[in-house]
Amino acid sequence: MRFAEELLLLLHSDESGYFIPIPEWKMSCALAGSVLMDLAFENRIDTDLETLTLVDATPTGDKLLDPVLEEISRENKSHSPQFWVERIARHADDINEMVIQSLVKKDIFEADTGGFWTLSGKVARSRRYPMVHGRTGEEIKGRIIRVLFDDEIPDPRDMCIIGLVDNCGGFRAMLEPEEYELAEERIKLFSGMDLIGRTIGQAVHSSYRPPESMRVVTGGSLPVVGLWDMLSSKSLRELNIPKFIAEKAREVGPVFKLKAPGREMIILANAEMNRWVGRNGRNVLRTRDYLEGFQSEWGTARSIASMGGAEHFRMRKAVRAGNSRKVVEDRMDELITLARRSFGQWGTGKVVPGETACQRMIGDQIAQLSVSIEASEILDDLLKFEYRALLVHVMRMLPKFTLHTPRMNRYRNRILELYAQIHATHTPAQREGKRRDLVDDLMELHQSDPAFLPETDLGFAFIAPIIAGHYTGSAMAFTIYEFLNNPHYGEQIISEADALFADGDPAGADFTLSNVDVTHRFIMEVLRLHPIIPMHVRTAMNAFEVEGFQIPAYSTVMVVFPATHYMEEYFPDPEKFDIDRYKEPREEHKNAGANAYAPFGVGTHTCGGARWTELQMVANILLIARHLELELVPKNYRLRLSPLPKTSPDKRFKFQVLRHRHTINSAA
What we know:
The chain is α+β, with helices and mostly antiparallel strands and 668 residues long. Helix content is 52%, strand content 11%. The protein has 29 helices and 19 strands. It has a six-stranded mixed beta sheet. α2 (24-41) packs across α5 (92-105), α19 (332-346) crosses α29 and α22 (406-424) packs across α25 (455-485). The chain is globular and about 85 Å long.
């Protein structure tokens, strides 16, 4: 284990899924000091209170240490430990990322798509790390707590760790005030016992802010994109918001102010901004504000979408199993049956409204797989109420009274009936012998901690996946359009479908990447070219600095994460539908450290059901390819967009079933 790995493990919080908050520059210096400590233990450098000296420039073979070693070896002059701590701290973000990746690779951390990390199940149970380089080790928190409170003598490495954590203020943040008071004497004693640790620790402690040479605040005004820019943009006239933002980011930079009549918003838009939000958004951006009114219409005060911090992490953990790809795999037979039922409703020769048909099909499947009920009769009402609530509270395009018309009140009452139906069908007796679903997980959380998940928040949590299914339904509509608009890819998908179904219905485990390679890449390209959610709207809860600009608290911030999908530097010829982007050697989805391909969002609110969605879409287009021959209506239809409250094909997108390639009322 490297010092930086154990530093992060010691500062990791099981409650928040992140790290105990330490001032950013202090943490950067601590990570830099940890790398220097390892180089000292590897006999590559030596240090005293005044000077850090290169002893041996031979690479260690460790990608975490060797870049720093090379940087030291290139320097002709001698410098103090503090000089090197400050210099290496400039690379702290990269060090942090490499260390987390290493801990995931070693099966010590498990990663969550929202940028949270938890100890792997094995480590959490045993409190020991897996075998690394032929050795196992006791989990660091247990070791350090024993040293501080049980009079145990630490080994030299643990003394160094104690010094690092103490000098960056970590123990004050980790321990309760009474605990810190009890341990303070031993903390100070051990912090000063090791010379290497003491010199680097003092450098960390004395570096209270970045050197002026590293500060890039411009003090200037943000670039402004105004009404004329919007009116004169062809992309915006085509209602493609991410493409418009990508074009403006290319002209004025990735951070700018968008001034619309009556509103001002700060825009963040490129891969580096996506990365920045993933790392820093949890401390400066809040989700709750723009969702409060929307949620209240559904009778709830809190949801996973509006929660932040430790609350959000706890809720993500509670619903992780119920939103996982494994659910779709395990219940693939039900998904196939439900899809075929939808095909039967489409008929033959009948003109089908594209997006509505896809939303009903996907909604039926999610209702069954997530909450184990038939919801087909209420899906349209749910969709209409959601659409109106988004226009009123999120888009602010309609007055509030439009949500309280007799028709909307009727929809609301039906939704309350749905809450009650789901609740009534999830008693222990009714669920006996059935596969656990998302509602079972939510009920367990409610019963174990009714203050955290009260009854007033439970109903909306039940139907949140069905609401999310409306978005997947829109993505499925784009998928059918591109399937029909790109017949050369359509033929390849038909071939994969026929091979997969050759011996009867496949199981979920049969949907391997090798079996569905073309279809999977096809879905990836649909999600790139047609991002359903064009942005995250946030409130700056703390002032922050980004790209040299100061953003004040209370600002409305729009993180236009899929703008990268239209940027040439990440996706050459971005408007071309090209599934070979995702094959070696191109692998464009990995550009910019995978921060450029972001169909499911960025930061802590990245969609937790992303892998479910991908598999569900793959399975459905394969089923369509297997059973149906479709045609656009009219044949020459060209896609137009509807941008609000999400990006969708417009209402003119329709298709018809010409014939059945294979019967839909049997397994074949």
